[in-house]
Protein: Putative siderophore transport system ATP-binding protein YusV
Amino acid sequence: MNSLTASNLTLGFGDRIIIDELDISIPKGEITVFIGPNGCGKSTLLRSLARLLKPKQGSVILNGQNIAKMRTREVAQNMAILPQAPTSPEGLTVYELVKQGRHPYRKVMKQWSKEDEEAVQKALEDTNMSDLKDQSVDSLSGGQRQRAWIALTLAQDTDIILLDEPTTYLDLTHQIDVLDLLFELNEKDGRTIVMVLHDLNLASRYAHHIIAIKDKKVYAQGKPEDTISADLVSAVFRMRCNIACDPIFGTPMCIPHGRGNCLIKDAVQENSILQTTPEAL
Structure:
C-alpha cells in the first residue's frame, strides 16, 4: 500500500508563509481529516501533497520517493485529488467525466481497453451513478454531482485519494451521503483517504486520524477521541465549547457556546440543567 509523508515542509505565496517546517505522516489505509480555521493552510497543504504546489522548502515523499522528482503520470497512477468545487465543460455526461480518470494510463495510439472500461464501470457502480451515466453533469443535483466527481477519482484507480472539502455547498443529507460513500470505500478497498472538513462533529465521526493545523504547523494529531477537546477547540478555533459523547457513534461531539436560545444560554451560564418533568408534558 502506498505511503505519503511530508518532511520540513514550508509552503507559501510570494513572501507570505502559509505552512512552516511541517512534518506529517498519513496513516496507510485510514481516513485522515485536516481541521483548522479558515486560512490556516489546510487546502494549501493538501495541494502540496498532490504536487499541485511547489514547496518553498522541504519535501513530500510518496512511496519513498520525492514527489517533485516523479513523473506526472506516475504520481497520478498512485494518488488522485478532488479539488474544492470542481467544474466540467457544459454538456459533458457523467460517463464522459468518469472516463477522464483513465487519462494517467492512456498512451499515444493506445486504444480504449477492456481494463479501462471495467475501471469506469466499477467506479460508476461503487458511487451508485450507473443509472445516471448518460445524464449531463450540470443537470445533476449537488450530491449527485459530487458522486460523479468521486467516481472520476475512483476510475483513476489509486490507493490514495485526496479531497478538498468534499461536502462544501451540500445540504446535511448529501453531506452524510458523500461521507458514507467515502467511509465505505475505505472499509471495502482499504483506500487511504485524506480530506479537509470544517464540521468537527463529522470529522470526528468519519476520521480514523485527525490533524489540527494552527499557526502554520501541526497543533495536534491522533484519533478523534484522543485529539478533540474543549482546550483544542479553544486554542485552534478561538471558540468556547463543551465536548460530549455522540450518543449514537460514541465519537467526540462539539457543542459550541454562542448566543442561541436565551433560555438555554441563561441555563448554561447558571450551570443549571434543563429538565422536562412529567408534570410539564
Summary: The chain is about 30% helix and 25% strand. Residues 270-281 have pLDDT under 50 and may be disordered. The CA atoms of residues 41 and 117 lie 37 Å apart. The longest strand covers residues 16-26.
